[in-house]
Amino acid sequence: MSPPCSLTLGLALALAAVSCALGACPAPADLKREDGTRTCAKLYDKSDPYYANCCAGAELSLEPGTDLPYLPSGWANTASSLVVAPRCELTVWSRPGKSGKTRKFTNGAYPRLEEYRRGVFGHWSNAISALYCRCS
Q1: What is the pLDDT of residue 52?
Q2: Lowest mean pLDDT: which of 13-17, 47-51, 118-122?
Q3: Alpha-carbon torsion, ordered 39, 43, 48, 54, to 10 deg
Q4: What gap in Å lies between CA 112 and CA 127, rounded to an integer?
Q5: Quick check: 14 pLDDT over 50?
Q6: Is 129 in contact with 74 (CB distance < 8 Å)?
Q7: Residue 5, by phi and psi: left (phi above 0), alpha (psi -120 to 50) or beta?
Q8: How far apart, in Å, are the Cα atoms of 6 and each of 1, 9, 19, 96, 112?
Q9: Could you read off the pLDDT of 106-132 as tens digits, one per residue?
Q10: Which of 25, 86, 116, 117 could join 109 via S-S bond, C-beta 3.0 to 4.6 A?
Q11: Structure pTM?
């Protein structure tokens, strides 16, 4: 017995919506280096109002246990998209030295950090100045 047409169509639309929400961001489970070792998270310096154009530009790959109270040259207040691997957590701060506002990002793709609030008047796009990434 086959499922009703409306159920099949609804499932197809739901799957399409999930794939569009990730845009150009890699799936969290695909965060691995070429040698197969695990990557905790990836930050990207480009996002866009269109999700298909997010997670682009320069990349900063973070290994499990990466602790950066001061981001590398050119990365302070630059990240506008990020992806966190399964069973990992990325903690970010808005000021160098792990001070200011903080937020934890868990497993998933975050193509537009403009959509994540940082206080009353701000968001996390171009606002990450320190980070710690850990995996269990």
Answers
A1: 85
A2: 13-17
A3: -10
A4: 12
A5: no
A6: no
A7: alpha
A8: 15, 5, 20, 52, 32
A9: 999 999 999 998 888 899 999 999 999
A10: 25
A11: 0.80
Which amino acid appears at position 112 of this protein?
R
Q: How far apart are the C-alpha atoms of 92 and 101, rounded to whole Å? A: 8
Distance from the Cα of residue 121 to its chain's centroid? 21
Closest Cα partner for 53 from 16, 18, 20? 20
Enumerate domains of the chain plus CATH numbers: 5-135 (2.60.20.10)
Nearest to 41 by CA among 73, 70, 81: 81
Q: Which two tokens stand for residue 27?
A: 């799936």
The Cα 93–Cα 100 span in angstroms is: 6
For tokens 């086959």, what's the residue? Answer: 2
